[in-house]
Write the structure tokens for this entry.
Amino acid sequence: MWRQTFLILTTGALLLPAAEPEKPKNPAIGNPEAIAAGQKLFGAGCAGCHGTSGEGGRGPKLRNRAVWHTLDDDGIFKTIKRGVPGADMPGSSLEDEKIWQLVAFVRSINSPAIEQNVPGSPQAGEAIFWGKGGCGNCHLIRGKGGMLGPDLSNVGGLRPVEQIREDILTPDNDGYETYRRVTAVTTSGRKIEGVLKNRTNYSLQIQDAQGNLHMVSTAGLREITLEKKSPMPKDFKSRLSREEFRDLVAFLSRQSMRPAEGGK
Ligand code: HEC
Ligand code: HEC
């Protein structure tokens, strides 16, 4: 019995390092300059088929794919270099260094922001979040803040940095159905105002400004007005300077609930 356990442990210990060899990443991956260079190349040679920011078109969508199926960095590299024979994807004649910049860009629109080397000062961004930006009026981070918008405590652990930027600049495009302002009047004349938290065919869950949740059945409603657009302000591009926006994004990119990361 003891002997068996011992053997298993030994084998395990011997096999583990061999099974997962440490492969160094190409230095372009996660490097902000390489990503920016890759973005330019992408705009010139790939956007025609994959969309300006990888949203897809004639070619498949290349962004916000939580799991990049079986393609690792090398796989993406080979796909770009060789193209996809038989499909509509041409190979590239760019030098390898440039192709790696493209891989870095494609990665950057998929990996969560916390894994990226995002430029800017998170400390300065934190001050903007709670101060000038007014973000904390609507968003919670680790239990502090408002509840009109989604909790952002894990936004860097979930979203690619490019998506965080777009969520701030073009809030109407994110496909959210919840968090819309709603006014409901019940058949008995009671008025409930707040944001939509959840919706089924039979009921609405509305959160009022005090944070109270109201469950209302649609059968008991006389009137319902649901705002289609995001309540999030749309003028951050003019209200924040370039540096402020960069720092804000750096701060949000560090928001992750992953235990190992810890930072703020
Ligand atoms: C003429 C249109 C076209 C152009 C230009 C093009 N692609 Fe594609 N790309 C496609 C198509 C179509 C596919 C899907 C191939 C398939 O069926 O697997 C694809 C697939 C890919 C894939 C693999 C996606 C996956 O899910 O496996 C990557 C990565 C990619 N393209 C990156 C690029 C990059 C980077 C460039 C610019 C250097 C580029 N493509 C230029 C049409 C194009
Ligand atoms: C008036 C309330 C309000 C303010 C102020 C506000 N937001 Fe939002 N935010 C929302 C709502 C509601 C959503 C949900 C999606 C939508 O409506 O766009 C959202 C969505 C987001 C998202 C996407 C969340 C996700 O799930 O990925 C990010 C990131 C974000 N906001 C960041 C900010 C930042 C940064 C600021 C300050 C510069 C800010 N918001 C100010 C209400 C607000």
User: Anything to note?
Assistant: The chain has three domains: 32-111, 122-174+233-253, 181-226. The two ends are 48 Å apart (CA to CA).
